[in-house]
Specification:
By secondary structure, this protein is α+β, with helices and mostly antiparallel strands. Helices cover 23% and strands 34% of the residues.
C-alpha cells in the first residue's frame, strides 16, 4: 500500500519535514517514490509548501495520507 507521510530532515531541536509518497512498509526515513511538499512547524504560522497537482494525483491512485498529512491537506483544501 502507498502512503503519504512525513519524513524528518531537520537537525536536533529544529524539526523540518518532507511530505513524501512511499510504500507503507518502509522505514520512516526510507526510500520514497516522490517528494510532494515540505512542512516547517517552527515558523509562525507553520509554513507548508505543497505540489497540489501531485498530491491530488497520488490520492487518486489510492495513496493513504497519515493523520498529520491529512490535516495538512485539509488546511490546503485538497482533502
Amino acid at each position: 500500500m502507498v502512503a503519504m507521510r512525513l519524513t524528518r530532515i531537520g537537525s536536533k531541536k529544529r524539526p523540518f519535514y518532507r511530505i513524501v509518497v512511499m510504500d507503507k512498509r518502509r522505514a520512516q526515513n526510507g526510500r520514497f517514490l516522490e517528494i510532494v511538499g515540505h512542512y516547517d512547524p517552527l515558523s509562525d504560522p507553520a509554513r507548508i509548501e505543497l505540489k497540489d497537482d501531485r498530491a491530488r494525483y497520488w490520492l487518486s491512485k489510492g495513496a493513504q495520507p497519515s493523520e498529520t498529512v491529512r490535516s495538512i491537506l485539509r488546511r490546503k483544501a485538497i482533502v
